[in-house]
Amino acid sequence: MTDAPEPTPTPAPEDPGTELAPPAKSAPVDRDSAGPFDESEANPVRPYIDLGGIKILPREGLNLRLEVEEQTKRIVAVGLDYADSTLQVQPFAAPRTSGLWEETREQIRQQVKQQGGRVEEREGPLGPELLAEVPVAGGPDGTNKRLARFVGVDGPRWFLRGVVGGAATSDVEAAAAVEDLFRSIVVVRGSSPMPPRDLIPLRMPSTPGTA
Q1: Which of 5, 65, 107, 209 is spaced 20 to 30 A from 91 at the CA atom?
Q2: 202 lies in a domain?
Q3: What are phi and psi of 86, to 5 degrees?
Q4: Nearest Cα residue to 88 out of 20, 182, 5
Q5: Is the pLDDT of residue 7 over 50?
Q6: 130: domain range?
Q7: pTM, 2 dp
Q8: What is the mean pLDDT of the chain?
Q9: Residue 144 — very low, low, confident or very high, per pLDDT cuts 50/70/90?
Q10: What single string gives the DSSP state of each residue in 63-85?
């Protein structure tokens, strides 16, 4: 008596584009002409404030803060106060052909849920964004809710992330003003090799001054 041959498993049909295709870049269709800009696309005669990895165009009512990591003294973010709102921005190195915003949104979703907050994804003027309600200490019952918008744009070899707070989370005019500010930013990726997701180095402005 011979053993019956083992049945050959039929491979499941592959879903094209789900496993092998890298995440697409997410950016407004007019990014190269309306921002956020790559250094190669920026107007060279504009009086930008040079912060290393990004350049900020001064405007009336804009206050700039540098957020420093206490242990390393490294500048890890740039804070912009404008239109009764706050905008925290961070530039990251990214692959040339694929984007980071898709996976970054998933990481933010998980973080907000772990903190006991709520988050929803919606389509905004810059593309997909997250609106989060995050609990913070200090309310009458010991906690309070803070609204935050998470926005992101994939550029050539960089990714720019923004966290919006204050009036621009709910007021249409303030939101438009902060979105315009975000789109005026220039990202300076540089030519040095950097692993994707590494923060592009930021520095103190070369000419101190108020925006």
Answers
A1: 209
A2: no
A3: -120, 145
A4: 182
A5: no
A6: 45-187
A7: 0.84
A8: 88
A9: confident
A10: EEEEEE-TTT--EEEEEEEETTE
Residue 155, in any domain of the structure: yes
Element (H, E) at 86: strand 85-93
Token digits of residue 152? 């992101």
CA torsion sign for 48, 101, 79, 158 is: negative
d(CA 178, CA 27): 17
Token match 């070899």: residue? 157
Query: How many structural domains does the chain have?
Result: 1
Residue 30 falls within a domain, yes or no?
no
The yes-or-no verdict on residue 3 having pLDDT over 90 is: no
- Reported as a single tens digit per residue, the pLDDT across 149-203 is 999 999 999 999 999 999 999 999 999 999 999 999 999 999 899 999 999 999 9
Burial grade of 62 (CB within 10 A; 0-12, 13-18, 19 or more): middle
- Evaluated on CA atoms 46, 161, 175, 37, the torsion sign reads positive
Residue 179 in domain: yes
**Contact status, residue 72 vs residue 167, Cβ threshold 8 Å:** no
Query: What CATH number corresponds to the domain at position 139?
Result: 3.40.1000
Q: Is 115 helix (H, G, I), strand (E, B) or coil?
A: coil
Q: Tokens 């697409």 appear where?
A: 24
In DSSP terms, which residues pair with 160 in a beta bridge?
91, 153
The three-class DSSP label of residue 171 is coil
